[in-house]
Amino acid sequence: MARENIPKDLINAIGTESSPLENDIEKGAIKRFAEAIEDSNPVYIDESYAKKSNYRNVVAPPTFLRSVNTNPLPENIKSPYSAVVDGGSVWEYFEPVCAGDVITTKTKLQDVFDRDGRLGNMIFIVRVTSYTNQKSKLVATQTTTSITYEPKEN
Amino acid sequence: MNQNLFLEDISTGMAIPTIKKDPTTQQLVKYAGASGDFYQIHYDMEYAKNNGLPGIILHGALKNAFLAQLLTDWIGPLGKLTKLEVQYRGMDLPGVPVYAKGNVNEISANGTISCEIWLEKEDGEKTTVGKAVISLPSKN
Fold first, then answer.
1. pLDDT (tens digit, 9 = 90+) per residue, B36-56?
2. Phi-psi bin for A136: left (phi > 0), alpha (psi -120 to 50), beta?
């Protein structure tokens, strides 16, 4: 793991956390998300079906938490490269997220490293977001890897 | 979908029933709106090309959603998805169908099940690979 091309400010920011942000989980937002991913599972849209399946209300699809907002990390946490692609996610799920929940998010800069690849030198930025519900229960964590690079002229 | 799957129904090496998804530019716009991810590489062709991409590409998180559906369709309402890991290896373009596939890798003594999952194009290229951990109820 190399850090040759990474500004010192960015390396020093490892471990920094965003301030928490509360999000209301709305039934309509869950439905719109399920429609957008074209997943017609009734647990996402039909309240009585969801309740028969032992949920408190319609439940959010596993990746719905992508749509939940987080406060940004401080300004200095920025790659010197202008373009970014998503490298992947690791989700851990502990409790279901249902309509009516209030989810508090917090994001931490976990790691930064660089590597050469087909997009040239790429800086990888690893962030962990935690999602906690109104009962102070951790419902999920998501670790995301953003790959930043400098676009070449075509 | 919606059928209950039990621990007794599965064995190591078995295939998870494949699902086919047909992403379109319209779906990318819907996903941008629903997820709040308005990065232009997912709907602005010129912007995507200026960023060195072959064209508009699927949101990685949308591919993640396809792989989550592979699992939730299979395990049914009683199963639990406890871990989902995806890595985007290749780019997927709207208009090109993708197949979400998987296999059962390991069934541990405490009933947790590890699976290998991936997205594949018609030519067999795996553009997204990952792993998942699920748990299932027992019939007993």
1. 999 999 999 999 999 888 999
2. left
